[in-house]
Amino acid sequence: MGGFCFPAIGKSSCITEEKCCICGGCPVTEKLGLKHGYYCTRGSEKEHLGM
To answer: Which of 7, 16, 18, 47 could form a disulfide with 43 if both were Cys (CB 3.0 to 4.6 A apart)?
Structure first.
């Protein structure tokens, strides 16, 4: 199963429910210093920051 980096691309057109966020366990989260989660339903890191 492949994946996407939703912190960079934003909301998913397939994921509609917030059941469990796995962003906190992703190495990209730590490497880029990301502070949020649920990027697949709430938008990219920039959207979280109001940019």
So the answer is: 47
Token couple for 9: 């691309």
How far is residue 24's CA from residue 38's CA, in Å, rounded to a whole number?
10
In this predicted model, what pLDDT tens digit does every residue of 21-30 receive, in sequence order? 988 898 988 8
In a domain, 39, yes or no: yes
pTM of structure: 0.76
For residue 35, give its domain range.
Answer: 6-48
